[in-house]
Amino acid sequence: MKINKEDIQEFNDSLLEPHQEKLNFTKREVTNSEAIIQKLVDFQIAIPSWALGTGGTRFGRFSGGGEPATLEQKIEDVGLIHALNQASGAISLHIPWDIPKDAAAIKQLATEHNLVFDAVNSNTFQDQKDQELSYKFGSLQHTDPAVRKQAVDHNIEVIKHGIELGSKSLTVWLSDGSNFPGQLNFRKAFENTLESLQQVYAALPDDWKMFVEYKAFEPNFYSMTVGDWGQSLLFANKLGPKAKTLVDLGHHLPNANIEQIVSLLMMEGKLAGFHFNDSKYSDDDLTAGSIKPYQLFLIFNELVAGMDAAGMNHAKDLGWMIDASHNIKDPLEDLMQSVEAIMLAYAQALAVDRAELEEARDDNDVVTAQNILQNAFRTDMRALVAEARFRAGGALNPIGFYRKMDVRDKLIRERGSATVATGL
Ligand code: LRH
Ligand code: MN
């Protein structure tokens, strides 16, 4: 389903006056509003191909209907989100959930929807029906070299798919680990995994990156072989300059200080990027900013400081991706909410007066330092984020437009209510 620009224009016209009022008010309050709006226009967040349907949990799945049943329909849905928010101009594929049968045709379709391909993701955490050897006891860590070779070959195949689509990075998340004390020789598991990743690393084109994603637990519940940022960084340092650490916000032990982890990975030049989501307990994969919006702001506060200190291009030099799963919300609405929350946190971080903050820190003026951050966090940036969308040709209120045009109903009429999207 394609969204036409005239409908967006007409919809925006009905909201323009109140928007302009809020924008003028915000511009009076936020001195660098124009610079922030430009940064927001350039900022794109990739949508995961595995989060366009209803995920569900082991206890149940409640489909909303009209789900994309093919990769082509998934690209249409991401194109739809991008047409409305002009901030989701990339899709991240998961192999084999989304193998492009005709890469050239898929690339052409993506271009028609103004989309590019972000990181491609390998999958050695499930056994495929035609698979020879099982990953029950792990993949790259496995005690059997034949299983490790099978997993290495899969990752190299994923790189090949990515090259055909114009992707420039491979994300490796390993469910490898153990469920019981005594089950695993931790050192052998690390060494097997490193040796295997070195073979995958050797297959990377020169201009590619490898994103090493860590996770504290699940589906293994005693140890994970890439269990935290330290272990991921150990691998990335031993692998080489193309390997970096990917931070999935839901992959930490409770109360971990993720913004501190981010600041140190940036200091080392080893931060790959993000899988944005939110959680209250574990890897809940909820809407970004829905549970801990202040943490999301604090992470962007460290990102802006670190990127500026390193002279990085905010939009291009890190991987910005969502990784969420939708149990009760319309997947497209959930994703548009996540993008909005991320853009708001970024805008607030861009409004922080860095010099003033460093001065307060140097003076150990804790109260002023905290106030500088909380004032930025308590500043309503919604008009700037909306203005960035508006200038880029998007909808002032994407979900408002999505509902007014009954997009989900149209998708159900087009696809039926029984289609199931591959993925989580
Ligand atoms: C693991 C993870 C990883 C993906 C998967 C879909 O929890 O975050 O990034 O491969 O979700
Ligand atoms: Mn993830």
Query: Tally of extended strands?
Result: 11
* Small-molecule components bound: 6-deoxy-beta-L-fructofuranose, manganese (II) ion
> Which percent range describes the beta-strand content?
5-15%
DSSP summary: helix tally:
16
Q: How far is the N terminus from the C terminus?
A: 23 Å
Large-scale geometry: globular
How are the elements arranged and paired?
Layout: H1 5-13, H2 16-29, H3 33-42, E1 47-48, H4 71-85, E2 90-92, H5 103-112, E3 116-117, E4 120-121, H6 145-165, E5 169-173, E6 177-178, H7 186-202, E7 209-213, E8 223-224, H8 229-239, E9 243-248, H9 258-267, E10 271-276, H10 293-309, E11 319-322, H11 331-350, H12 354-362, H13 366-377, H14 382-391, H15 398-404, H16 407-415
Manganese (II) ion binds next to loops.
Description:
This protein is globular. Helix 3 packs across helix 14 (382-391), helix 6 packs parallel to helix 7 (186-202) and helix 12 runs antiparallel to helix 13 (366-377). The mean pLDDT is 97. The chain is α/β, with parallel strands linked by helices and 424 residues long. The protein is 47% helix and 9% strand. It has helices at residues 5-13, 16-29, 33-42, 71-85, 103-112, 145-165, 186-202, 229-239, 258-267, 293-309, 331-350, 354-362, 366-377, 382-391, 398-404, 407-415; strands at 47-48, 90-92, 116-117, 120-121, 169-173, 177-178, 209-213, 223-224, 243-248, 271-276, 319-322. It binds 6-deoxy-beta-L-fructofuranose and manganese (II) ion (MN). Manganese (II) ion binds at residues 173, 213, 248, 275, 323.
